[in-house]
Specification:
Blueprint lengths: L23 E6 L14 H9 L5 E2 L4 E2 L5 E6 L7 H17 L3 E6 L5 H11 L4 E5 L19 H9 L4 E6 L4 H10 L2 E4 L3 H7 L7 E7 L21 H13 L3 E8 L10 H17 L4
Parallel strand pairs: 1-4, 1-5, 5-10, 6-7, 6-9, 7-8, 9-10
Antiparallel strand pairs: 2-3
Helix pairs in contact: 1-8, 2-3, 3-4, 6-7, 7-8
Length: 292
């Protein structure tokens, strides 16, 4: 079922009618309660869905068609405005339910703090979990201006939950000096600036393991994705992120879930950010979801 039985909004292109028969479930997390610069990512999930209607259903990257993947778009989780703690609890409970039903969870944000409750749910299901984090920002702060629940803290929380040695960050080009020092001292795997090249070296070491993947759209250079809350110059191109997705699709790893966050449509009147995000979601579906 959808969160709202009267839901009449657009769904991701070729979403199926049945939750029960779906192998994957797309769900939106419309929250931007803790952002530190520009709000608006709560509108990201809806715009990604709308942009998907302009996609081809066939991918020349994966050489597959969306008709080959059985997925259901559940709409947006209704989250209580301004209440970060309760919103995170609701997301965690929902992902728990997806995993109990054997679904591949594919979340659309919303701010990056939303990945934190997903990490907790995934770790309960997969005790040997590894996390691949693709982002411009390290997100390794313990708090931001006194708030532990912040979009700048989810990867620090992940390190403390599953062990820093099981967290792999790529494309990082922004953060406090202390964040980079923590990454080095804690033994996490943080790769600055690039994504695809370090992935090639890392993926053989993750062979056979369950892996959760979180992508912040701001890993792209603002020239390719201006519609985000905390844009950072010096990023990768859309082509490079698609290359990284293909590497992940071809790797001998068990991808168990994913999210794409921080699309903030108001800052991109051209819609190129939402258009790119929808294409990345298509490739996630075609490359990372397998039949139960």
């Amino acid at each position: 079922m959808r969160f709202d039985e009267a839901y009449s909004g657009k769904v991701f292109i070729m979403s199926r009618a049945s939750y029960e028969e779906a192998d994957a479930v797309i769900y939106g997390m419309p929250m931007d309660w803790t952002v530190s610069f520009r709000p608006g990512s709560r509108f990201g999930p809806a715009r990604i869905r709308e942009a998907s209607l302009g996609l081809e259903e066939y991918s020349p990257y994966a050489d597959k068609h969306l008709e080959e993947i059985n997925y259901f778009d559940a709409g947006d989780i209704p989250l209580p405005f301004g209440n970060a703690a309760r919103s995170l609890d609701i997301v965690e409970e929902y992902v728990d339910s997806l995993l109990a039903d054997g679904k591949f969870p594919l979340g659309l944000g919303g701010e990056h703090l939303l990945s934190w409750p997903i990490f907790k749910a995934m770790y309960r299901k997969y005790p040997d979990l590894a996390i691949i984090h693709i982002d411009a920002h390290a997100d390794l702060r313990e708090q931001y201006e006194g708030e532990a629940l912040s979009h700048s803290t989810p990867i620090r929380k992940a390190c403390e939950l599953i062990g820093a040695e099981n967290v792999y960050s790529f494309g990082i080009r922004s953060g406090m000096r202390e964040e980079f020092a923590y990454a080095k001292e804690a033994g996490m795997h943080l790769y600055k600036f690039d994504v695809a090249e370090p992935l090639k070296n890392v993926l053989p070491h993750l062979s056979g393991r369950p892996v959760y993947i979180t992508i912040d759209i701001d890993v792209l250079d603002p020239a390719h994705a201006p519609g985000t809350g905390t844009a950072e110059a010096g990023g990768i191109t859309s082509k490079e992120l698609l290359e990284a997705q293909m590497l992940l699709s071809q790797a001998d790893i068990q991808i168990v879930g994913a999210d794409l966050v921080e699309v903030a449509p108001a800052y991109d009147p051209t819609e190129q950010t939402a258009i790119a995000a929808s294409k990345f979601v298509r490739e996630m579906l075609l490359g990372w979801v397998h039949k139960r």
